[in-house]
């Protein structure tokens, strides 16, 4: 049947219906409607004692996914060789299950927040290989069947695209990626295995290095399912080619996720900076929305109250979509409207 309305009028009516349907909907709901798997948040265990914080975090319409901010890092999980501690991760897993939220694992192999014994031991290549196999195998194996995905190797490159001279690279060269990924796959055949880093949102030397590495891993049939783009960004300085960057990784046949999003500003907060931050959040979300294999977005905690930024970047902060009083900032509407756009 011929519609009495013009194509333009129908598109406009459709957009209005879409906008109305979105009013009042929460961020995970909107992400799913945009075809994504989740919108989520990082959380650290001590914060769970803050009841208003925990209540909002537990709202699965807002957050469909959790990441343990610290409790699955090597120094926490295996502080002493052979002594494993999963209590912190287990607590967050229990909360995620109760709330029906997905859980992302962070992280097996990373040079930072690494237990001191791993470097101090001055291990041979053979021994360090066995240590990685044991650590990733036990960590991923402990959460077998429970994790949506894992950051198997974290922050392996310098900004200039050279390999980071970690104890892993210095001892094993590039072989450690394969060792860690294979150990993770063996421990949980169904979780998605990621490499994860910062300053790889746009196309640059560092994201080029990941592109080359991931291509070679795929060619060698090493298990790799995704590229995690952390997204620690600065207000007014969001790269313009995020979508193109995501698309080239998607074209390799892997997923992409924004895993640690925050967009910081120089303090004090002003209405102008909050408006720019809203536009910046919207730009990042639109890039993920536009790339089919961008599966989801995680903010590195949802409130300025528990942001890592002020302690690491002096004089900067206010990086998240909720303020210190758990009130939504303009950035929240930027995210919501970008999922709807
Ligand atoms: C999540 O938050 C929204 C908005 O405040 C509310 O309408 C909804 O009922 C909450 N959902 C749950 C499961 O608490």
From TrEMBL:
The keyword Cytoplasm does not apply. It comes from the Eukaryota. Its EC number is 3.2.1.8. InterPro entries: GH (IPR017853), GH10 (IPR044846), GH10_AS (IPR031158), GH10_dom (IPR001000). The active site is at 260 (nucleophile). One of its GO terms (molecular function) is endo-1,4-beta-xylanase activity. It is an enzyme of class 3 (hydrolase). Residues 24-338 form the GH10 domain. It catalyses: Endohydrolysis of (1->4)-beta-D-xylosidic linkages in xylans. SUPFAM superfamilies: (Trans)glycosidases. Keywords: Carbohydrate metabolism, Glycosidase, Hydrolase, Polysaccharide degradation, Signal, Xylan degradation. GO terms for biological process: xylan catabolic process. Pfam families: Glyco_hydro_10 (PF00331). PANTHER family: BETA-XYLANASE, GLYCOSYL HYDROLASE. Belongs to the glycosyl hydrolase 10 (cellulase F) family. This is Beta-xylanase. It comes from Ephemerocybe angulata.
